[in-house]
Design a protein that fits this description.
mainly beta; twelve-stranded antiparallel β-barrel
Length: 200
């Protein structure tokens, strides 16, 4: 029985748990994002941020072959400026370059709402609560978890103990969940926390 939860595409869902290693690019060498490898050191995804794209609030996730698969942007405008929360939209990209909204993520952007959880909505809507995924824990401490609306863990982030650097960490994606989607969420969290994808 297929229990996969595709968001970007079913091809990014695996039947077994997968550990992905995330390494920030040095700012002086092609800065503006991070590289994602598997345990065999094969590049699986590349995330480009402001340092490469040149625009604030825009992120691009590419597959291991360098093909764009997910474009993420922070929603702007007057309404957004007055809001106490930031909204990010993730759009899948097909071979013709067309975008289709696949998820939106809302995060608190003021100290008043800092305790509010980060919620993710999938498109088309299929949530069992008023959200599909929720992020708990601390990205800055490399200790956060993404759960779905049935309280199952979709992915868990951790430090690579032997290295002990915030520039290198791992994410374990559980079986059936979309790895490209999880990396897209990691890219947004990276940007929110002013790390490798943010403009310097």
């Amino acid at each position: 029985m297929d229990n996969s939860v595709p968001v970007v595409s079913k091809i990014f869902c695996s039947s077994t748990p997968t550990t992905l290693m995330i390494r920030r690019r040095p700012i002086v060498v092609n800065g503006g994002g991070f590289v994602v490898t598997d345990l065999s050191n094969n590049v699986v995804f590349v995330v480009d941020g402001c340092g490469i794209l040149g625009s604030k609030g825009e992120l691009l996730v590419k597959d291991g072959e360098g093909e764009p698969i997910l474009f993420i942007s922070r929603k702007g405008g007057t309404v957004q400026a007055l809001s106490t929360r930031n909204k990010w939209n993730g759009c899948s990209m097909d071979y013709q370059g067309k975008n289709k909204l696949v998820f939106s993520l809302t995060d608190p952007k003021s100290c008043i709402t800092k305790v509010a959880p980060i919620r993710i909505h999938i498109e088309p809507k299929r949530h069992c609560k008023n959200w599909d995924f929720e992020i708990s824990g601390s990205f800055a401490d490399r200790d956060c978890t993404i759960i779905d609306c049935t309280d199952k863990i979709a992915a868990q982030m951790g430090k690579k103990e032997q290295i002990g650097s915030k520039d290198f960490y791992n994410v374990e994606v559980q079986s059936g969940y979309d790895k490209a989607f999880i990396i897209g969420v990691m890219a947004v969290l990276d940007n929110i926390h002013g790390e490798s994808t943010r403009c310097r």
